[in-house]
């Protein structure tokens, strides 16, 4: 059997199982999550052994040390995995509820019921915890799921797959509802992302290379964000102390996250705050790359930003800084160089704040807040399947609702159309 | 300039204009719609002359008479066009409002603002009124639009394009926000539907051939439905008179619409209603195609349904009928042969009705109602851009909200992440 046939067959079996998951009561889906947790608890030893095999293979193949770190499981990480499962289990049922049921003038009642999408495909890299995390989010939202983990984690993922399928069976759900692709063939990904009519949505979770490849090859809908080139704009009417605190938090709270500020725009009217801000950032080891005017203020403390700097997601202790003449230059800069992820303004002027919210076309727009808040948990979604910088279907941090759709429900009492 | 370059250039100019439409107050967008109506009123004579040219060309090329009918404009149809414009103008502003603004435990406020998608592409056939209808829906929702009408309507559409652009200019909006492709080259469609990053969504409005072609070639998101193979299932606990009335209305109210019933499933426990129902349908000239058991009841009045009949959208006075053993056989049949458009049940059993709503995976699911109600106006959407049988982004009848997205709005007072 070719890898294409294998992927197709597994996906088809998951799709067939999806109807049963979709119409199951939440108590059954929750007890499946409980049973999966129990199985993982029982198989701790087995899971750690399998993970040791993956780690041994990784050292043979000379895997990058950052990836090895993500691949590694230990008791603490297994505990964290079980904790995430419990968090998802505790969320309210995202499907089946009927909203906005209203009478129309014809006498019919029309509302919307939230329903699962069907079959979700998840494509991810070395972290084995994504196997459990993604499976739990899909099951909770009534979806079946086809998982394609990194080849470097295949031994760990095999054990987790067994736990998940055993859990499903114990809860009376079809084990085929969660399929873990057991192949290291890279063609499996291209096969997955072109299964229109079988896979309803694909979510790539991983580095930019993976996401770009999936987005390029996919013909099924993809939930993704490519870049987080986030801006903070310090407006002329900003509270200077607040602006400095927000800029430092947005840049230095964590460097490797997509909602970290990469570019700071400073209104020329508050240019006097630059030396203090720069001193704080330099003290924290942040490299500064400025426009000519910022460079003139900072001298040797700041190197020249090239045009490429403005559109770069550093994911590192580097910040580009630009002095702008006014609001319009700031929002034009964001429109030109931003990635539509998260952009914020610091201002005490209400009209300016409202204007910024309206005209900046990003998945999160913020006033007087650190960009680091752009996150499913911070937004109260309970869990996060990913962040979308696209506008179709879901945008910004995506919780369980992003794995669902709505259908119209129409109730009558023999109503005919006249 | 090649047709690809021409399409790309026109789309790029519309996209550039889209930001100004997106951030314009609703009063400006409404006055643009008023000004477009005024221009059409002024150009009535010119429009009718241009339409005469299209009709003359159509008779030379031997255009199908149904298409000629759709192509033709007269005073009444121009009045109807102006009336639709007024209806769209009267709708509340679908963008800019902030929903669900709530405080999080961190102290930040998080809500969602409804925003336009950006640039919508509309691909349609002979009816020139779609030019005005689609342009008004896109403008009202803050979008720019690229229109590709049928080549047979090009003279009429040229005049309408002039009216729309003049209206935009008078209202102070960029005329580039509505672009009408002035070419009969069929490659323009393929060029449009692959403009990722420029066109945010494409809506094909027309026959199945057009929609299939767009769906096959498109790499940008498409809002579409292909088939309306709608079912009504008469359950064992149905009120017999209600069931007959609903079946007759769902089949015979109009034959050519996508929400017309094409297949009737009858529970064997209420098979006795078949002769009366059949008599009413035959009286109205409906051809009946039945399963063997239905045929045994009706004899010569009913021909045999082939397997192909079950998945066919007749769009004609033809109905397929099947006797089913129970609820499960009915919903399995709908899952196998339906198109996910609209399916209904007739029953007085509450539990069965609720079960039907939950398990049938169609964009509209109905209880004791004619399928003919699946319609944007009947659902109170105010206007309808199309019906979607896909699950991503929009599903079922789609109003102005289907041309919008949401972005997160985050308000703080110097909140940093800890």
Notes on the protein architecture:
2 copies of one chain form a homodimer. Chain A has 418 residues and is α/β, with parallel strands linked by helices. Chain A contains 15 helices and 16 strands. In chain A, the strands form 4 sheets. A 7-stranded parallel β-sheet of chain A has the order 10-9-11-8-7-12-13, sandwiched between helices. In chain A, 50% of the residues are buried. The model of chain A has no long low-confidence stretch (mean pLDDT 96). At the A-B interface, strand 2, helix 10, helix 15, strand 13 and strand 16 of A face strand 2, helix 10, helix 15, strand 13 and strand 16 of B. Strand 16 (404-415) of chain A pairs parallel with strand 13 of chain B.
Précis, in short:
The structure is a homodimer of 418-residue chains. Chain A is an alpha/beta fold. Chain A has helices at residues 3-22, 26-42, 44-61, 65-71, 75-90, 129-140, 154-170, 187-192, 208-217, 240-252, 274-283, 292-298, 307-310, 327-337, 350-359; strands spanning 98-103, 109-116, 119-124, 144-148, 178-180, 201-205, 230-234, 261-267, 287-290, 303-304, 318-324, 342-346, 364-369, 386-388, 396-398, 404-415.
Tags for this entry?
seven-stranded parallel β-sheet; 43% helix; homodimer; four-stranded parallel β-sheet; Aldehyde Dehydrogenase, Chain A, domain 1; Aldehyde Dehydrogenase, Chain A, domain 2; globular; 418 residues; alpha/beta
How many domains comprise the coordinates of chain A? 2
CATH-defined architecture of the largest domain in chain A? 3-Layer(aba) Sandwich
The chain pair forming the largest interface, with residue counts per chain, is: A-B, 63 and 63 residues
Radius of gyration of chain A: 24 Å
Net shape of chain A = globular
Instruction: Tell me the strand percentage band of chain A.
Output: 15-25%
What would you give as the CATH superfamily of the largest domain in chain A? Aldehyde Dehydrogenase, Chain A, domain 1
Number of helical segments with 4 or more residues of chain A: 15
Strand order of the largest sheet of chain A: 10-9-11-8-7-12-13
End-to-end C-alpha gap of chain A: 56 Å
Quaternary structure of the protein: homodimer
Low-confidence stretches of chain A: none
Would you tell me the structural class of the helices and strands of chain A?
alpha/beta
What CATH first level of the largest domain in chain A would be assigned? Alpha Beta
CATH topology of the largest domain in chain A: Aldehyde Dehydrogenase, Chain A, domain 1
Largest sheet of chain A: 7 strands, parallel
Fraction of residues of chain A in helices?
Answer: 40-55%
Average residue pLDDT of chain A: 96
Task: Give the beta-strand count of chain A.
Answer: 16
């Amino acid at each position: 059997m070719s890898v294409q046939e294998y992927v197709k067959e597994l996906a088809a079996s998951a799709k067939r199982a999806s109807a049963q998951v979709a119409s199951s009561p939440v108590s059954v889906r929750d007890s499946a999550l409980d049973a999966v947790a129990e199985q993982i608890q029982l198989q701790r030893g087995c899971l750690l052994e399998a993970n040791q095999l993956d780690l041994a293979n990784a050292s043979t193949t000379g895997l990058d040390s950052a990836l090895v770190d993500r691949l590694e499981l230990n008791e603490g990480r297994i505990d964290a995995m079980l904790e995430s499962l419990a968090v998802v289990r505790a969320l309210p049922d995202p499907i089946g509820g009927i909203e906005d049921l209203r009478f129309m003038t014809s006498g019919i009642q029309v509302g919307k019921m939230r329903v699962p999408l069907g079959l979700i495909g998840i494509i991810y890299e070395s972290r084995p915890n994504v196997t459990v995390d993604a499976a739990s989010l899909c099951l909770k939202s009534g979806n079946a799921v086809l998982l394609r983990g990194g080849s470097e984690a295949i031994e760990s993922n095999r054990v987790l797959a067994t736990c998940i399928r055993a859990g499903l069976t114990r809860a009376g759900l079809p084990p085929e509802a969660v399929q873990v692709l057991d192949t290291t063939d890279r063609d499996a990904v291209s096969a997955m992302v072109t299964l229109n009519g079988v896979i309803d949505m694909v979510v790539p979770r991983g580095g930019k290379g993976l996401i770009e490849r999936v987005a390029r090859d996919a013909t099924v809908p993809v939930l993704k964000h490519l870049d987080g080139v986030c801006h903070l704009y310090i407006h002329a009417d900003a509270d200077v102390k607040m602006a400095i605190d927000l800029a430092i938090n947005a840049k230095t709270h964590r460097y490797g996250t997509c909602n970290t500020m990469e570019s700071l725009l400073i209104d020329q009217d508050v240019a006097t705050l630059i030396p203090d801000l720069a001193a704080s950032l330099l003290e924290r080891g942040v490299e500064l790359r400025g426009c000519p005017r910022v460079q003139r203020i900072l001298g040797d403390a700041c190197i020249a930003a090239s045009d490429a700097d403005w559109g770069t997601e550093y994911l590192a202790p580097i910040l580009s800084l630009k002095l702008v003449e006014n609001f319009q230059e700031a929002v034009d800069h964001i429109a030109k160089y931003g990635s539509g992820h998260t952009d914020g303004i610091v201002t005490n002027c209400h009209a300016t704040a409202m204007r910024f919210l309206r005209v900046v076309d990003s998945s999160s727009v913020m006033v007087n807040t650190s960009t680091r808040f752009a996150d499913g948990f911070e937004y109260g979604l309970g869990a996060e399947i990913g962040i979308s910088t696209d506008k179709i279907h879901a945008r910004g941090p995506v919780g369980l609702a992003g794995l669902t759709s709505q259908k119209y429900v129409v109730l009558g009492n023999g109503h005919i159309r006249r």
